[in-house]
Amino acid sequence: MLTAVTRSSVPVSRADVAARTGLTKATVSTQADRLLRARLIVEGEPVARVGPGRPAAGLSLCGDRVAAIGLEIGVDHLTGCVRDLRGAVRHRAVAVGDHRDRQPAEVVRAAADLVAGLRRDAVSDGLSIAGVGVGVPGLVDTLTGQVLLAPNLGWRRLEIGRPLSAAGDGVGVVVENEATLSALAEMGYPTSRSEPDVDTDAGFVVVSGEVGIGAGVVMDGELVRGRHGWSGELGHVTVDAGGDACGCGARGCLEVFAGQEAILLAAGRAEVVPTVRDLGSARAVDALGELVRAAEAGEGTALAALSRAGTALGVALSSAVNMLDVDAVVLGGIYARLAPWVVPQVERELSVRVLRSRLRPVRVVVSRIGPDAAMLGAAALVLRDVLSAPVPWLVS
Amino acid sequence: MLTAVTRSSVPVSRADVAARTGLTKATVSTQADRLLRARLIVEGEPVARVGPGRPAAGLSLCGDRVAAIGLEIGVDHLTGCVRDLRGAVRHRAVAVGDHRDRQPAEVVRAAADLVAGLRRDAVSDGLSIAGVGVGVPGLVDTLTGQVLLAPNLGWRRLEIGRPLSAAGDGVGVVVENEATLSALAEMGYPTSRSEPDVDTDAGFVVVSGEVGIGAGVVMDGELVRGRHGWSGELGHVTVDAGGDACGCGARGCLEVFAGQEAILLAAGRAEVVPTVRDLGSARAVDALGELVRAAEAGEGTALAALSRAGTALGVALSSAVNMLDVDAVVLGGIYARLAPWVVPQVERELSVRVLRSRLRPVRVVVSRIGPDAAMLGAAALVLRDVLSAPVPWLVS
Predict the structure, then answer these.
(1) Cβ neighbours of A250 in B, within 8 Å
(2) Which end of chain A is more exposed for a tag (fewer CB within 10 A), N or C?
(3) pTM
């Protein structure tokens, strides 16, 4: 019942819900009343309807009671938000700093502080936190809340579920790979956008890149997490088996060509502070922004570095699509921002290297979500559980 | 009910079937009687049982009524069989010849002749043919029975379903990628082997290579066919973006390093007739057999060619596993035969290049099925449908 409300971008009437779910109108009315009392849905203005009959009141998700905290632990930043059941971001918090220079415990403490602050913000709005979703650039164990291996952070077997749960006053914490969460965000669920950019049934690979590069895979409308949740390690797909050494221990991985710092290095910008985002702080040096401006000005080194990165990204994505047979790739993370320079190279490699391109070209879509995708997906992971199993929230 | 019988490697009693399926004993007995009358199952000697009670008669699949024709269209051979419902191969037929030198229509005619001959063999055994499964090294449209693109055969948009159906006296024909069928065979369903070599739930990639290289992907016990059934194009996963030109139009694909002819060429055996199998014919030159003997004799060129192929195969498989997170790779096709020389390289590359190898090594399994995997899988595809929907066979 809640799912029928969620899937609609406009308020739906009880009759519509009954038609979509196959439930009787009486059952829908009873359930709607319980969800209304629990403030998981609201009843709005009458909905215009096609055909005869009087206008019916529209049901939509309610953003006033339940929310989730979404957190992304990046290599050079922590970004968190409070996202309500409607999908709206109610509060944001950011902490910048290169985590490679710090003890893991110190970073976890900073993350816990962020969560505690966001929880206070939520409580002051009268929101109940259903849980904390955390995105990490590495391999995780979702069951134990451990980060098993995050090469770019230098983390190995680090427990983060418990300290973050404590910071959230004991709520559940779910830890997931950040690229998988970006894919979830791209699926648009739960969403305030009217339509996702790609047909989720068609299958797609979402690239999520900053210092490292990850990917989320969606097939038949479902996340493909792999045997242990470790799928989508696009950053370590080989571009050139004899290439330069990668931080992972291998050679010629995609990250060597197209990771944020590899691009800046190739563009002769080794000295700039590698921080991706415009943080609204005067001190934040936006290295990627400088690169974009140099490329716009036609600076040769910048253009060459971006072309090399785009080509390598296209090679790795071609290997991925040859194995997976998906209809689209979605460029998120830094690649969304670098799209004017990398999309042509990616399209060219996909057209040359992917066998199925001879029959059906692979679509290249630039993500409109931006660098917040993993954080939004982290909150969505928690909210999705509330929507699919709302019973615990029905008792006030 | 049939599935419970299929899944057991030994005959099962009616009581066991009831326990496994959750059906009542009365229902199982009624269904068993119908299946016995239709000769889809047989009742054998009493089964030894654990615990009290008298020995019960064991039910197992019957091989005397229903069978399927499995056909593989390779680049240099046609191989077909009649496989009965128990999984036993009752008849075989082979036709050798390089199809690249012939008109597609001529090859399809030869395949139709093979099917017609196998059908006659089946009929003379009193078997009914449930359908024809066909494996092709390329991208297919299973709905229309078209081969859409098979670069190594030089085929494009070739209808093969209809002529093969006619040859089989109007039976249904299902066309599928040969590597996908090899993966199905590796899943051991239906099987006469007691256990598959790999845990199908754990996920694995099956490599099926001869002139071209393909792969079948199994995750959560299911074939992963991709959006259009075109997944598993391992032969066109990039090993070295700047490498030699591939027949597909790209550069540095796996096939350039590890396809059968690439290996023979690198081993200084360009002149030998590229036929993989020991066909029992004095005229058949077993080029791969010669290579194996040279490697066994420690010939440097042969060893270098195999080492290069094994390394490239390991690189491509590493990219695949990084994206898919499967627990094992299964080496079939020519790689099963070349295992002593390629397995160490594949294991080394997987251990260095796959991020999850730091946490859980990827198993390398050598297929025991041999070069018949695609043909056996083709028949299995048809038999699987009979087992899951036996109703049409219940009316005699």
Answers:
(1) 318, 352-353
(2) C
(3) 0.92
